[in-house]
Amino acid sequence: MGLGVIGQEIARAALANDEVELIGAVDSSPKLAGRPLSDVLGQAVGSMKVHSSLGPAVARRKGVVLLHATGSRLPQVKDQLLEAMSLGLHVVSTCEELAFPWFNHPEIADTLEAAAQRAGVSIVGTGVNPGFVLDRLVATLGQVCGAVSHAKVSRTVDARTRREALQRKVGAGLTEDEFFSLVDQGRIGHVGLVESAALCALGLGLDCDDYEEELTPVFADEDISGGAFLVKKGQVAGMHQVAVALDDGQERVRLELTIALGADDPGDIIELDADPKVKVLIPGGLPGDRATAHLVVNAAPRMTASQPGLLTVLELPAGR
Questions:
Q1: pLDDT tens digits, one per residue of 75-117
Q2: Low-confidence residues of the chain, pLDDT below 50?
Q3: What is the DSSP track for the chain?
Q4: Which fold has domain 5-128+290-315?
Q5: What is the CATH number of domain 136-285?
Q6: Where are the domain boundaries for CATH 3.40.50.720 in the chain?
């Protein structure tokens, strides 16, 4: 459900995965509804067409998992999630705020939990972040340690390798004033970084009582080409976002996310201050769109075997 760039990647990943069968696609956009899915994806998938609503796409099939990719903010997608569960569908969603909904939307989280229990289905939010690099992977590495006193994770992405919508979302091409104006409107920045910090703390057994977040622009030192548009020297090239989790005023988790055109040394770095200390580097970093698509699809078979309810990625099996 949702055939934007990420949704199309999810559909392709599902077609390539032996554990799942793609049975339908849904998008309410007049430009997509009714079109052959083959045309939308640019590859042969039989005679399947895009439905405008969920019910006809599912029909009477049982054991269906909805792969959901329509929005980042939980209030915007809540009704879609509730409808899916009312139809008896498990749900795996890319909605960033669903990764740990108790943080910003506890009432909606309670509503989703109750709906999942009534329907006997499970629901989870996942993706590359939140959902993996900045939280689940960190928690997995914490299994080889004793008590962790501090975790630092940094993810640096050269936005030239990502879609134009993401380049716009991180403020590339704006002035400083324009950047902060859009920050105030909630239109710039990565949704879900605080949710990742909460998941990270939970997965490492850290009892944190306060969270802080900061977002600042990254400026171009020279003209930057190679993206969807030219960013001139002095303009915003992207963003640097930080979320920290604290315990009684002491920092226990620090997540740093830089997404900018021309960002130096792209990669993911995880450091755990523990016994033993752990430092893991993923050169280049995990590719966001494709990794998210495979994370969503690989979670689908796990959902049908899970206990009903609202889950986090920490409750999913580590392996396939």
A1: 999 999 999 999 999 999 999 999 999 999 999 999 999 999 9
A2: none
A3: ---SHHHHHHHHHHHT-TT-----EE---TTTTTSBHHHHHTS-BTB-BEESSHHHHHTT-SS-EEEE-S-SSHHHHHHHHHHHHHTT-EEEE--GGGGSTTTT-HHHHHHHHHHHHHHT-EEEE-SSTTTTTTTHHHHHHGGGSS--SEEEEEEEEEGGGS-HHHHHHTTTT--HHHHHHHHHTT-SS-TTHHHHHHHHHHHTT----EEEEEEEEEE-SS-B-SSSS-B-TTSEEEEEEEEEEEETTEEEEEEEEEEETT-SS-EEEEEEESSS-EEEEEET---HHHHHHHHHHHHHHHHHTSPSEE--GGGS-S--
A4: Rossmann fold (3.40.50)
A5: 3.30.360
A6: 5-128+290-315
Global confidence as pTM:
0.94
